[in-house]
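Q: What residues go here?
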């Protein structure tokens, strides 16, 4: 899979991840990783928490942000 950002610029590079929101493939230099805490566990067991990384492409990372989206045209 090739990086979508690089592909748009006429270059080819292997992607390391896929944008969580739009599905675009992105390479390490272009990926924006959002780290969030995710809680696990049932009502019975002891709840756990771990950091979950969500890769996003640079363009969409901003566009997908609600705060930024309101400012976009
Ligand atoms: Zn790229
Ligand atoms: Zn994206």
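A:
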């Amino acid at each position: 899979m090739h990086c979508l950002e690089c592909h748009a610029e006429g270059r080819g590079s292997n992607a390391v991840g896929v944008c969580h929101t739009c599905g675009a493939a992105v390479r390490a230099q272009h990926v924006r990783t959002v780290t969030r805490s995710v809680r696990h566990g049932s009502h019975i067991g002891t709840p756990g928490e771990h950091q979950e990384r969500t890769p996003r492409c640079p363009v969409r990372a901003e566009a997908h942000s609600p705060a930024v989206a309101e400012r976009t045209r």
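A: Context that may help when evaluating the design: The chain is about 20% helix and 30% strand. Strands lie at 17-18, 25-26, 32-40, 48-56.
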